[in-house]
Amino acid sequence: MLDVVMELPPTYLDGLALNTLGLACLRPLIERSGLRVLPSGGGPIAETASSDPDDGGRARNHRPVRTYRKSSGRRAGDAIISVLIRAGLVPHSYLLTTRGRKTGRLRTNPVTVVERDGRRWLVAPYGPVSWVHNVRAAGRVTLRRRRGTLTYAVREVPPEEAGPVLKQYVQIARPTRPFFRADKDAPVEEFIGEADRHPVFELTLLA
User: Fold this and answer.
1) φ, ψ dihedrals at 119, nearest 5°
2) Which end of the chain, N or C, is more open, meaning fewer C-beta atoms within 10 Å of its C-beta?
3) What is the tens place of the pLDDT at every residue in 33-61?
4) 55-69, 150-164, 193-207, range with the lowest pLDDT
5) What domains are there in the chain, each with its CATH number?
């Protein structure tokens, strides 16, 4: 049995893509879920709005660091974005499948993968959530995008290795920036300093 438990991934399409896919009808649902749809032709279609009314709804890059919480709006957004990820239309994003460490059931989450110099890393921007514990217990994961499915061994990296990966991650994962203390332009040392809050796993393709 496959349980699909989605988290909103940190990269999105624009309104033009929704129209091209014939998914413009989803726009009202996206907006009701608390996400923001921008005009067609560039930029992300959805970004979690800030809970601080003084910042005009923009994501913040400074303290206080936002805490991740599931909500009905987020679940609705997850369901919409998962359709786009399955179609291979969300850059850098994949469907991650792990086996539940307690239930043994397969569980799927959308994730963003960092790629550099032929190497790949899996980042947990919201901290040690459920899929992180599953990855640690299993030592392997499956990533799916369109019709391709690949299995990887995982190695959790120490802070010194995680820092540069986290810095690159926030460059491509804009809506997750409020969950980091370090600003996107901060030196690598600041990302190393908070690496314990954002587990990073190096992925090695299994034959």
Assistant:
1) -110, 155
2) C
3) 445 444 433 333 333 333 333 333 343 34
4) 55-69
5) 2-205 (2.30.110.10)
